[in-house]
DNA sequence: AGCTTGAGCGCC
DNA sequence: AAAAGGCGCTCAAGCT
């Protein structure tokens, strides 16, 4: 059963029940309090809640202590269907741009959007949109039922991801301010009272000024620093640490240390802590489907880029543990399954797929295996990685055939799609590509540019199918895990997800349930593999660790 | 004054 | 040693 919510969680809500055949009940008018009662009373029947935007509706429910198991996020679903190769020729695909093409609910504005004034504004009627999406899938199913089923799975997984993202934001990641503050003091010195540089950082700045003989130097200014380095006779083209690392000069050591500290201060310093950590919890905002491939992004907080330095501050509560699991060599396993490459799947049967490549005699060392695989996934054109490619092609023709085909399609300006049917964007207007007609004034240069652009786009589409399908697997993994965690709850608490990082999850759990969580996360990975790839014998190996703080994982 | 851009560096 | 896909975030500089 589907229940469509229209309006906004503050009020002016209409609730409509739909049967699978699309027959609607008489709409129910509700205010904000009525919504909570209605959700609580209907959720035990496990309906799929259909709403415009999870970030708009779900926080109000979570605030009231309610959770839902299943949903359809119409905005996320619309975006997938609108772009999907599979929906070519359907009404949704051909419809002119409308309110559903808009972007996510803006931050801090979760209950004040265009949907606020009622269901029909700008044609943004959730019931009509939901039915259109159903019909679109029906249209696809008429010619290719399997393709439609995959798209449906994708929409469900994406929508479940949106639920999880809001749940994680609401609950937050356990964060020890004292541990974080100690890290900052150790690296930077005491927190400055009235702004300005922390003492240790200023001390390093002084050493750099002396070494470069420039008392006025501001090492935070890239142009200023570059000028000073050149004046000191150093052969530099930029100020990146990779370039500086190679130089021998008294200024280099304090400069590298300064850059490291400055980075920590600006990205995860005291200001960051004040903005994002409250009551022992870090509350990041995830953007589901924020990356074209289907990966998540963040909006503020940078939860997906927590540097190793501060991970010690992610600390389980007293009596609780963190279970950290990451999928080992996920993307190679994904393309093995997609291409039905038995040989690579066999190499991944052991826990370490890279070692599997060595054991199979494809390459001589694990390091080479890794470099070669990255080359296959990213499209290496030079260096060691490119030199190892022929060995991979011989050993795994199906895998390499898959990624090469994706690259060639991109070079021709075509879309490619993930396993479940998310399609790559079409190249932009400035993309001339392989078919570019050379202009008369500078044909050679234009032609070169066009070829380069085509190759660049090919590397993008090559990676898109692997990265995007990996993201789909990960969402299915996490969705299954979420269900299993709920079932583990007892009187001492409920294990819950606190971090999702592309191929890694972290669960905060009562300590006595850590082993059960480890089993759950492993079983959920197996389930996800079967859900996507059926009986194809590919393993999705995990590295799982039970720890008290995040820096202890790995 | 406020916006965009580029450099740089953190993550997968 | 560097290369090759996807990002977010911050600062300073350069622009309007």
Automatic annotation (TrEMBL):
Which InterPro entries does UniProt cross-reference here?
Answer: DNA-dir_DNA_pol_A_palm_dom, DNA/RNA_pol_sf, DNA_polymerase_A
Gene Ontology BP terms: DNA-templated DNA replication; double-strand break repair
Q: Which UniProt keywords apply?
A: DNA replication
The DNA-directed DNA polymerase family A palm domain extends over: 309-513
The catalytic activity of this protein is classed by the Enzyme Commission as 2.7.7.7
The answer to keyword Acetylation applying to this record is no
The protein's GO terms of the molecular function aspect are: DNA binding; DNA-directed DNA polymerase activity
Catalysed reaction equations from the record: DNA(n) + a 2'-deoxyribonucleoside 5'-triphosphate = DNA(n+1) + diphosphate
Q: Where is this region: Disordered?
A: 414-447
Q: Kind of enzyme, top EC level?
A: transferase
Q: Which CDD domains match?
A: DNA_pol_A (cd06444)
Enumerate the transmembrane spans: none
Q: What is this protein called?
A: DNA-directed DNA polymerase
């Amino acid at each position: 059963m589907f229940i469509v919510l229209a309006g906004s969680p503050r009020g002016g809500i209409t609730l409509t029940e739909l049967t699978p055949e699309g027959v609607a009940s008489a709409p129910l008018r509700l205010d904000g309090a009525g919504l909570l009662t209605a959700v609580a009373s209907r959720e035990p029947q496990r309906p799929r809640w259909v709403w415009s935007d999870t970030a708009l509706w779900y926080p109000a429910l979570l605030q009231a202590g309610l959770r839902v198991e299943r949903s359809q996020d119409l905005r996320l679903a619309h975006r997938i269907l609108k772009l999907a190769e599979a929906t070519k020729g359907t009404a949704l695909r051909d419809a002119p741009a409308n309110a559903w093409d808009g972007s996510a609910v803006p931050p801090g504005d979760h209950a004040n959007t265009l949907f606020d004034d009622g269901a029909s504004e700008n044609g943004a009627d959730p019931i009509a949109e939901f039915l259109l999406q159903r019909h679109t899938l029906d249209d696809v199913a008429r010619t290719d039922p399997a393709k439609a089923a995959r798209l449906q799975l994708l929409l469900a997984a994406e929508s479940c991801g949106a639920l999880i993202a809001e749940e994680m934001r609401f609950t937050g990641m356990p964060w020890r301010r004292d541990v974080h503050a100690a890290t900052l003091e150790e690296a930077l010195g005491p927190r400055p009272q009235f702004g300005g540089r922390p003492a240790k950082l200023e001390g390093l700045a002084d050493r750099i000024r002396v070494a470069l003989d420039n008392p006025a130097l501001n090492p935070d200014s890239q142009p200023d620093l570059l000028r000073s380095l050149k004046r000191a006779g150093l052969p530099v083209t930029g100020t990146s640490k990779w370039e500086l690392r190679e130089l021998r000069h008294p200024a280099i050591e304090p400069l590298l240390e300064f850059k490291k500290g400055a980075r920590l201060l600006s990205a995860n310093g005291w200001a960051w802590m004040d903005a994002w950590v409250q009551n022992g919890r870090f509350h990041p905002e995830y953007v589901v489907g924020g990356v074209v491939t289907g990966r998540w992004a963040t909006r503020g907080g940078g939860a997906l880029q927590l540097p190793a330095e501060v991970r010690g501050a992610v600390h389980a509560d007293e009596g609780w543990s963190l279970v950290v699991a990451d999928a080992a060599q996920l993307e190679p396993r994904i393309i093995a399954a997609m291409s039905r490459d038995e040989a690579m799947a066999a190499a991944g049967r052991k826990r370490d797929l890279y070692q599997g490549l060595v054991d199979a005699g494809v390459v001589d060392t694990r390091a080479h295996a890794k470099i070669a695989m990255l080359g296959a996934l990213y499209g290496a054109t030079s260096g060691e990685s490119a030199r190892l490619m022929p060995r991979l092609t011989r050993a795994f023709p199906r895998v390499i055939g898959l990624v090469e085909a994706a690259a060639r399609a991109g070079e021709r300006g075509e879309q490619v799609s993930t396993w479940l049917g998310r399609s790559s964007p079409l190249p932009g207007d400035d993309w001339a590509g392989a078919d570019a007609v050379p202009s008369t004034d500078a044909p050679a240069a234009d032609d070169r540019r066009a070829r380069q652009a085509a190759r660049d786009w090919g590397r993008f589409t090559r990676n898109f199918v692997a990265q995007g399908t990996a993201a789909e697997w990960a969402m299915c993994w996490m969705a299954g895990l979420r269900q299993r965690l709920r079932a583990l709850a007892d009187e001492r608490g409920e294990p819950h997800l606190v971090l999702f990082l592309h191929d890694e999850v972290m669960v905060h759990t009562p300590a006595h349930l850590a082993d059960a969580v480890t089993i759950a996360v492993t079983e959920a990975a197996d389930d996800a593999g079967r859900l996507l790839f059926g009986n194809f014998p590919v393993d999705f190996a995990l590295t799982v660790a039970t720890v008290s703080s995040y820096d202890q994982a790995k």
